[in-house]
Amino acid sequence: MAKAPYFMVTNRKLVKGDLSEQRVDTLAFYTSMGGKDLTKLANWTSITGEEFVKQLRAVAAEFPLLPDSRNSEQKHVSLFVHGYNNDWRTATARYVQIKTQLYDASDLGALVLFSWPSNGSAAGYLPDREDARASGPQTAELFVRLHEIITAEQRVAARTNDPEKMCRAKISVISHSMGNYVVQKGLAVAAKRLNSPQLVTLVHQLAMVAADVDNDLFQKDQPDDDDGSLMSNLCYRIGALYSGLDEVLGASAGLKHFGKRRLGRSGLADRSNVWDNVFDADVSGLIVKKNIHSAVFDSPKSMALLEKVLRGVDRAHLGLPPPAPPVG
Hints:
alpha/beta; Rossmann fold; globular
């Protein structure tokens, strides 16, 4: 099968022909067939949201319809949400790397970049935090669009009694660093817009890499309308890849409200009291000990683990060592 095109959605403001660090309240959509330097906006084509959905559906329509016994082979339409301190060029370079080394190499499906207005500056942590929170409604719009595609195709298949018309793609998300906070807020807003749907799994696999969110996010004793509860309801499975070696998240914890460790550094606060579709995995032994905050994407062993998570391999068969003790 031919490689899927490159797709990008952004709420960055277009300034003098380039994507800036300023946020806007509307989404812009881009696509490219690749072959050129995609860190240059001139090598992307701007399209409407309707055309974007049309192109994504066309790609997914070419995916094979597989029996349940081959569930792990089913292809994905995935969203990659980058982290803190990434200008759009840096985010795009990482997106291209993940698409090339994971999605194209393993024939995993289509990958979409969501580029939110991170400031691309170490001094911009707190402004980034506010932009991440404010990007929630735009991220929710993406999730609502995906929900509409899934439910529309399910209705057609049911009405016509034709399984060939079923949605052929799994929906998955890879979120890195503070991009997990963007996804947290986006899924929470989407759940409320969709009236907390119980019959449709919106995201099959959510892979939270070095997540810069509270490590008690998914505790079951939280209210039903808490972000973690809403996320657990919309996702079939949530896997948090963490490492106690991550000094970036160690520094990040000092900027949060007192007492909350980072999920991407400490793992789940209480594994016995989280929703049963949530798990964590210590990747310290799999990553290259360089640029540890993003090392999952730079280490072949951890990329292989990420693929297993996305394909839905049971957590007991991921081949991971027991979780490490919590890190402050």
